[in-house]
Amino acid sequence: MFGRKRRIEIKTPAQFAMMREAGLVVARTLELLRSETRPGITTLDLDVVARESLALEGATSSFLGYHGFPAVVCLSVNDEVVHGIPGDRRLRDGDILSIDFGAIVEGWHGDAALTVAVGEIDGADALLSEVTEQSLWAGIAATFAGARLSDIGHAVETSVLARGEYGIIEEYVGHGIGSAMHMDPSVPNYGEPGHGPVLEVGMALAIEPMVVRGLRHVHTLDDGWTVVTDDGSRACHWEHTVAITADGPWVLTALDGGAARLGNHAPGTSDLPD
């Protein structure tokens, strides 16, 4: 109905268990793609690797056919921020590659991204990736029941700006996830704390900072998908799917559930609503 407030999807323990299965498919495939990334390989070659992984895992793609997207993985090189389409481009020594991948198991989605070095990369690019990944984990640490949605973006932004003068992309943000890949709420990577919905046990969010070495302004190429920086500066993208449990954030797309980075064991789901 017009004017009705949209409700954020709350998952049951069984539904989170299926999301965990999808998340593990994503985690294993991203590690496989990381290991296959090297100078000389084409981005289309990597899409084939991802397709084969999905088939072996018995999962389906969150990306293929989504609004017409033609691949199962987004591969964005250097100044490409997000949504890069695999093709005949050969990766070169010194490139950085952002890999974004999603999988579906029993109708439930997992979505994550990482940035990898191709051969030997510039120190400033390595630092950019470190800063972006660190900001992701700062946002994840702020994702717990009782917090406000904007606390996540504030944590991401604060983490990035503490490390130097970087641009944080504002046009592309994180999102709710579960029975669909993109759901309410949107999860910006910037802003003041204490605003937006109160986070609840049973919610799941995809948190995904995109950070650039230059200014934050971007545009989309003629292919209708690939987003690049206006000034040609290099970009990084890191993402995880996070479940909110009574014990804290459970990183569904991390092999260890987030334990190493959050300093605890992956929470269980026994206290989730039925």
Low-confidence spans: pLDDT under 50, at least 5 residues? 1-5
Determine Rg (CA atoms, Å).
18 Å
Which structural category fits the helices and strands?
A: alpha+beta
CATH C-level label: Alpha Beta
CATH topology (fold) name: Creatine Amidinohydrolase
For the termini, the CA-CA separation is 27 Å
- What's the count of strands? 15
Instruction: Give average pLDDT, whole number.
Output: 94
Number of helices: 5
Helix percent reads 25-40%
* Major β-sheet strand ordering: 8-7-9-14-15
Q: How do the SSEs run, as a string of H and E? A: HHEEEEEHHEEEEEEEEEEH
Percentage of β-strand residues: 15-25%
CATH architecture descriptor: Alpha-Beta Complex
Provide a descriptive summary of the structure in words.
This protein has 274 residues and is α+β, with helices and mostly antiparallel strands. The chain is 27% helix and 24% strand. The chain has one domain (13-255): Creatine Amidinohydrolase (Alpha-Beta Complex). It has helices at residues 13-36, 43-57, 123-141, 149-161, 259-262; strands spanning 60-61, 73-77, 80-82, 96-105, 108-117, 167-168, 174-176, 183-187, 204-207, 210-212, 218-220, 227-229, 235-237, 240-245, 248-251. The strands form four sheets. A five-stranded antiparallel sheet has the order 8-7-9-14-15. Strands 1, 2, 4 and 5 form a four-stranded antiparallel sheet that branches. Strands 3-12-11 form a three-stranded antiparallel sheet, with no helix packed on it. A hairpin with a 2-residue loop joins β4 and β5 (108-117). α1 (13-36) runs antiparallel to α2 (43-57) and α3 packs antiparallel against α4 (149-161). The two termini are 27 Å apart. Residues 1-5 have low confidence and may be disordered.
